[in-house]
Amino acid sequence: MTKLYGGIEAGGTKFVCAIGSGPDDLRAEARFPTTTPQETIARCIDFFRNWAQVSPLTAIGIASFGPVDLDPRSPTYGYIGETNKQGWDNIDFAGAMGRALALPIVLDTDVNGAALGERRWGAAQGLDTFLYLTVGTGIGGGGMVGGRLIHGLLHPEMGHIRIPHDRQRDPYSGWCPYHGDCLEGLAAGPALEGRWGQPGETLPPDHPAWELEAHYLALGLHNYICTFSPQRILLGGGIMEQAHLFPMIRANVQRLLNEYIKVPALIKNIEDYIVPPQLGNRAGVLGAIALAQRLGG
Ligand code: ZN
Question: Which of 170, 172, 254, 272 is the most exposed place for a label (fewest CB within 10 A)?
Fold first, then answer.
C-alpha cells in the first residue's frame, strides 16, 4: 500500500495543506488565508484529522515562512521565531501539530522545502549541491550542499546579502527595513514598485527595469556560485514569471564571472544551469510532502 504523507506550505499570506505521495498522487488539498496562529493551525489540524479517519498518514512535513528553528536539539525546534508576520512570534508550530495528530512532524524553511521537492520530482533531480532562489515579495534561498539541506546557525538568509549598489545608475535607496539596499531591498517586488512607481508585472519586457533587475540578481548569483559551487540554480517566485529575465540574468552572470570558473555549465551550457523550477505553484506543498517522506521512510 502506498504510504501517504501530509504537507503544509505555510506562507505569510496563505496556507496550502495536501495529502498524497507525489505530484501524480495528491488526494486532497485545502487552501486558506493565514490569519492568527491559533485559527490557522487549527484549520491545518482539522484537515489532517478528517483525512486520518479515512486513511492513516505516515508523517507530516511543513515548509514554513521564517525564521524557523531547525535544530532538533534546540528546545524551540519547530518554532517560528521573531517574524514580521504579526502574531506569529515564537509559535510552537511543529509541536502543536504533533501533539494534536500524534504523528511525526518535520519542519523546514519554505525554500528548503521547495528545493527538496524540485530535487525529488523537478528541475534538480540527480543533484546534491544546488540552490533554489525565490524572487517575489521577498527574496529567499535554500537548497542542498552535499545532499543535505542547508541549515546551520539558523538557516541561510540569501536575500539579505550585500551587493554593490551604484547610486548614480540607481538612486533608489532600497526598502529592506534592516539593511536598506541589500539584495532583497533592491530587487524584490517592492523594490521594483518603489523605484518605478508601478508593480513589476505591469512593466513591459523592454523596460530598463529588467536590465537592472537582471544585474542585481546576477550579482547575487555570482556570490552564491563562488560560495556554494552549486551544480544548478533554480529561480522561482512571482518576479521570475517574467520569463524574459532568464536570458538577461544568464548573460549578466557570464559577464560578471568573466570566465573565471572554467566549467561548461557556466560557459557553454548556462541555459541548463540557471533554470526555472518545474513544479510550479505546487512546489511548496510538494516540497513539504518530500520533507515528510524523508522522515517517514
Ligand atoms: Zn535586508
Answer: 272
Q: Mean of the pLDDT values across residues 29-46?
A: 97
Distance 254 CA to ligand 1 centre (A): 25
SS (H, E, C) the chain: CCCCEEEEEECCCEEEEEEEEECCEEEEEEEEECCCHHHHHHHHHHHHHHHHCCCCCCEEEEEECCCECCCCCCCCCCEECCCCCCCCCCEEHHHHHHHHHCCCEEEEEHHHHHHHHHHHHCCCCCCCCEEEEEECCCEEEEEEECCEECCCCCCCCHHHCECCCCCCCCCCCCCECCCECEHHHHHCHHHHHHHHCCCHHHCCCCCHHHHHHHHHHHHHHHHHHHHHCCCCEEEECHHHHCCCHHHHHHHHHHHHHCCCCCCHHHHCCHHHCEECCCCHHHHHHHHHHHHHHHHHC
Q: Report how far ligand 1's centroid is from the alpha carbon of 133 (Å).
A: 15
Spacing, Cα 83 to ligand 1 middle (Å): 14
Q: How far is the CA of 134 from the centre of ligand 1 (A)?
A: 15
* Structural domains in the chain, sorted by start: 5-110+284-296 (3.30.420.40), 123-276 (3.30.420.40)
Q: Are strands 130-135 and 233-236 parallel, antiparallel or unpaired?
A: parallel
Residue-wise pLDDT for 53-68, tens only, equals: 888 999 999 999 989 9
CA of 180 to the centre of ligand 1 (A): 6
pLDDT band at 296 (very low <50, low <70, confident <90, very high): low
- Give the pTM: 0.94
Output the CA 82–ligand 1 centroid distance in Å. Answer: 15
Peptide bond into 104 cis (omega under 30): no
